[in-house]
Amino acid sequence: MGGKQDGDEAYGKPAKYDPSFRGPIKNRSCTDIVCCILFLLFILGYIVVGIVAWVYGDPRQVLYPRNSTGAYCGVGANKDKPYLLYFNIFSCVLTTNIITVAENGLQCPTPQPVIQSLQQELCPSFLLPSAPALGRCLPLLNSTPPELPGISSNTSISQGISGLLDSLNARDISVKIFEDFAQSWYWILVALGVALVLSLLFILLLRLVAGPLVLVLILGVLGVLAYGIYHCWMEYRVLRDKGASITQQGITTNLSAYRNVQETWLVALIVLAVLEGILLLMLIFLRQRIRIAIALLKEASKAVGHMMSTMFYPLVTFVLLLICIVYWAMTALYLATSGQPQYVLWAPNASLPSCEKVQMNTSCNPMAQPVNSSCPGLMCIFQSYSSTGLVQRSLFNLQIYGVLGLFWTLNWVLALGQCVLAGAFASFYWALDKRRDIPTFPLISAFIRTLRYHTGSLAFGALILTLVQIARVVLEYIDNKLRGAQNPVARCIMCCFKCCLWCLEKFIKFLNRNAYIMIAIYGKNFCVSAKNAFMLLMRNIVRVVVLDKVTDLLLFFGKLLVVGGVGVLSFFFFTGRIQGLGTNFESPSLNYYWLPIMVSILGAYVIANGFFSVFGMCVDTLFLCFLEDLERNDGSLNKPYYMPTALLKILGKKNEALPGDKKRKK
After folding, report:
1. Number of neighbouring beta carbons within 10 Å of residue 394
2. Does residue 2 surpass a pLDDT of 60?
3. Number of Cβ atoms within 10 Å of the Cβ of 231
4. Average pLDDT of span 570-592
5. What pTM did the predictor assign?
6. Are 566 and 601 in contact (CB under 8 A)?
7. pLDDT band for position 138 (50/70/90)?
C-alpha cells in the first residue's frame, strides 16, 4: 500500500471533491494575459507587414508576362499587346545540317535581312499556330512546324519542334480537365454527400455497434498476424530445406536479396509471434479496460448525437485556416515582388558610330513609348531589382516574420477548435440531467468563453508548438543543403536530431490537446492545466494506452470504410460499370475518368477526417472527465458519480439514491 501511495504522490494527488463544481466553470478570469498581449501585438505587427508588402509589392510581376525588355504585356505602352510570344532563334543553332561554321561566325541559309532581324531579336525565326494561355502564346495541339527556307521537314529541327509541341500539351490537358469537371461536378458533390452521410451514420451508430465492431477489428488484427506467422513459417521451411542461409550469401546492400535467406523469415516469424502473444495477453488481462473504452466510445456517440452542431464546427476551423494561409501567401507574394525593377538602355552594336552619343546603361522607363534614336536596336531592357530600399534590405527578416505568423496563427486556430469542442462536450458529461443541465447552445457558449478568457493560453500552447515546428523546418533545410557533403556519421546524427524533434512535436501536441480540455473545464492557465492533465493521465496510464489504441483502431476503420466506400462507388459509376440507372443517372462521358474518382476520394477523406477529429476530441474530453469523476466522487448522496450507468456497471459501482428519486437520464 505504501508503494502505491508513493506512486500516486509522484504524479500528484487525486482531485478532491468540490461541492460547487457542476461542469465547465462559468465564473472564470482571463488566463496568460502576458502571452495574450504578446500574441495581439504580434498579430498587429503581422498586419503591418501585410500593409507594407501591399504598398511596396508589385504582383504584376507574377500575374503579367514580361517581354525580353522587361516590360509588361498588356500594361502601359503594351496595353494593346496582352500576350507574350516566345521567339525561337535556336533554329539556327540546333543541328549541323543547317549550320555552317565559317571564319566570320555562324551562318544560316536564309536571306541576310532575316539574319539581321534574328541577331537583333526583332522577329521570331518561325511561327506556329498558337492560342493564349495565362497571357502567353502556347502552341496548339497537333500543330506542325512550317516549312522554313532551306530546311527539310525531315530534318532533326522539325523533329525537335514536334517533340516540343508534344511536351507543351498542358493547355489541351487543362481544357480536357475543365471539361471533365464541368461534366461531373454534380456527381462529385453527390459522392461527397455520401461521404458525409456515411461519416455521420458511423459515428451515431457506434452507440449500438461499438462493442461488436471493436471485437471484430481486434479479431481481424489477430487473424492477420496469425496468417503472417503461417506465411513466414512456410517461407522459412522452404528456404531451410534448400539450405539458403545468410552465411552462404553474405552481407549485401541489395535488400531484395534478403528475401531468399531463411534468417529473414525466421526473424519476421518471431516478431509477429511476439506481437500476437502481446495482443492475446492484453485481451486477457486488460479486458476490463477495453470494456471501459467501448463504453466511453458509446457515450461519445451519444454526446455527438445530442449536440449535432459540433460535427460542423470543422467548417469554421477550415475557413479560419484558409484565411490564415491566403493572408500569408498574399503577403509573401507582395514581399517577394517588392523590389522595384531597374531598366537601362542597351544596344546590340553599341560600338557603332551612330550609338556613340547614347549613354548606355543609363536608367530608362520601359512603360513609355519606344526610344527614338539613330542607334540601331536601341532598347530599354530589364537589368535587376533594386535592393537599396528599407523594405528590400529587410526582405528576409519580413519573410521569416511571415512564416512565424503562419505557423502561430494556424496552431492557434487548431487550439481554438479543440478548446471549444472540449468545453461543449464537458458540459454534456457533467450534467446529471441531460435535458435540464446542458446549456441551450453549448457550442456557442464554449466558443465565446474560450475567446473571452483563454486567448492567451491558446497562444501560449500554439507558440510552444510553433517553435518546435520551425526548428524541424530549419533542420530539414540544413539536411537538404548538406545532404551531398555529409558522411555516414553526420547523417546518423542528423537523423537522430530529426527523430527527436518529431517525437517532441508529437508529445507537445498530445500535451496541448489535454491541456486545452482542462482549460475548457476549469479555466486555469496553460501551465497549470498542462500539469494537471499530465498528472491525471499518468495516474491512469494503462487506461490511457488502451483507450488511445482502441479509438485509433476504430477511427482508422471508419475512415477506411468511408473513403473506400466512396472510392469504390465512384470507380464503378464513372467507369460506366453500373447499369440500369436510367438516362438521368448515366455516367458522364469523360476524357480522364480517374480525375473525378480521385477528387471524390480526396474530398471523402477530408470530410471523414473532419468528422472523426470531432469524435476523437469528444472521446478524449469524456475520458478526462471520467477520470476526474472517479477521483472526485464516490457515489454517495453528496458526491454522486456523473458517469453513465454502463460505466458504473463495468466498474462495479453505483450511486446511492433517495427513496422516490427518479432514475437519472443518461
Report:
1. 15
2. no
3. 14
4. 70
5. 0.75
6. yes
7. low
Of 496, 501, 492, the C-alpha closest to 474 is 501
Q: Which DSSP category does 68 fall into?
A: T
d(CA 298, CA 531): 28
C-alpha angle 231/234/240, rounded to 5°? 135
Residue whose grid cell is 471523402: 604
Q: What phi and psi values does residue 114 have, to the nearest 5 degrees?
A: -65, -40
Asked whether 589 and 177 are in contact (CB, 8 A), the reply is no
Flag whether pLDDT at 339 surpasses 80: no
Question: Are 272 and 526 spatial neighbours (Cβ–Cβ below 8 Å)?
Answer: no
With 0-12 / 13-18 / 19 or more C-beta atoms within 10 angstroms meaning exposed / middle / buried, residue 366 is buried
Residue owning grid cell 466511453: 296
Task: List pLDDT tens digits, range 166-180.
Answer: 544 555 666 677 777
C-alpha–C-alpha distance, residues 500 and 346, integer Å: 56
Nearest Cα residue to 307 out of 225, 156, 135, 425: 425
Give dist(CA 86, CA 237) in Å, integer. 66
Contact between 513 and 419 (Cβ < 8 Å): no
Task: Say which residue the cell 480526396 belongs to.
Answer: 602
Residues whose CB is less than 8 angstroms from the CB of residue 197 and which lie 6 or more positions away in sequence, other chains included: none
Handedness of CA 77, 79, 84, 85 (dihedral sign): negative
What are the tens digits of pLDDT across the range 228-240?
A: 899 888 888 887 7
